[in-house]
Amino acid sequence: MRVVLLGPPGAGKGTQGQALAVHYGIPHVATGDIVRDHIARGTPFGRKVEAAIAAGNFASDADILYWVGRRLAEPDAQGGYILDGFPRDVAQAEAFDAALSAVIVLDIAEAELIARLAGRLVCPVCDAVYHTDLCQPRRAGVCDNDSTALVRRPDDEPEAVRNRLQVYQTRTEPLKAYYERRGLLRCIDASGPPEAVTGDILRALSTSLAPERVF
Ligand code: AP5
């Protein structure tokens, strides 16, 4: 099973990616998490992209393809994976030559995205995602998994969110038509509670998996 999660910032790709990874026993590979991990560790790649990411702009295709390729070559990804945030534009999709089972699009209104990003909290250690009102941790401000203090992402500030939404429309939206033409696209209403959205994705995947194909 090789699935791509597509959708605007705040649609729930990370939330659903983690749930699907647990369900299928395959890794959740999120390019945003890879980038943030490099920034947190102060690697050369992290230092190079830190300012661009905080403003809501992309890392370079060459860097992303390199790090995704390395991650997907690891043993735990040989039985499949849930990709989140990659491919992010048609150039990345064309360069990525893995066979895919399906591409899930999380559909949601812009006002809801803004509300979700305004209250998002993340765990800097395990990447778990919470919300101050919508998906609260058991103890306020603390990760359920490892008790780490939760933080806000710098790119969740209003100006960066506006830029990310615009970049999504111009660069990432065209991927829908790209994967639609290949018969892989499955659209899911992402406005309901997280568990309901997960159920809808699992139903879509169980009834309409394409044979994995390379394009
Ligand atoms: P990335 O981390 O991929 O950011 P994004 O695509 O903007 O998506 P988000 O992580 O903001 O949102 P999400 O859809 O995962 O929503 P979440 O589940 O957290 O990338 C970050 C940056 O890295 C990019 O801007 C770019 O610069 C760079 N980058 C990444 N990939 C790249 C690539 N391939 N090429 C180049 N650059 C790249 O949910 C959001 C909030 O809503 C949370 O608070 C959550 O608790 C809540 N929530 C989720 N689902 C629900 C629900 N159903 N009901 C109520 N609340 C919900």
- Distinct compounds present: BIS(adenosine)-5'-pentaphosphate
What's the mean pLDDT score?
94
Total number of helices: 9
Count of strand segments: 7
What is the overall shape?
Answer: globular
Strand order of the largest sheet: 2-3-1-4-7
Distance between the termini: 16 Å
Please describe the biggest sheet, giving its number of strands, its sense, and whether it closes into a barrel.
5 strands, parallel
- Which value, in Å, is the CA radius of gyration? 16 Å
User: From N to C, what is the helix and strand string?
Assistant: EHEHHHEHEHEEHHEH
Structural class of the helix and strand makeup? alpha/beta
The unreliable regions are none
| Beta-strand content bin | 5-15%
Helix proportion range: 40-55%
Which terms would index this structure?
single chain; 215 residues; alpha/beta; five-stranded parallel sheet; two-stranded antiparallel ribbon; 9 helices; binds BIS(adenosine)-5'-pentaphosphate
Characterise this structure.
It is built from nine helices and seven strands, in the order βαβαααβαβαββααβα. The strands form two sheets. The protein has a five-stranded parallel sheet, sandwiched between helices. A two-stranded antiparallel sheet has the order 5-6. The mean pLDDT is 94. The chain is globular. Strand 5 and strand 6 (129-131) form a beta hairpin. The longest helix is centred in the last third of the chain and has 15 residues, at 158-172. Helix 1 crosses helix 9 and helix 2 (31-41) packs across helix 3. The two termini are 16 Å apart. The protein has 215 residues and is an alpha/beta fold. BIS(adenosine)-5'-pentaphosphate binds at residues 7, 9-15, 30-32, 35, 53, 56-59, 64, 85-86, 88, 92, 116, 119-120, 129-131, 134-135, 155, 164, 193-194, 197.
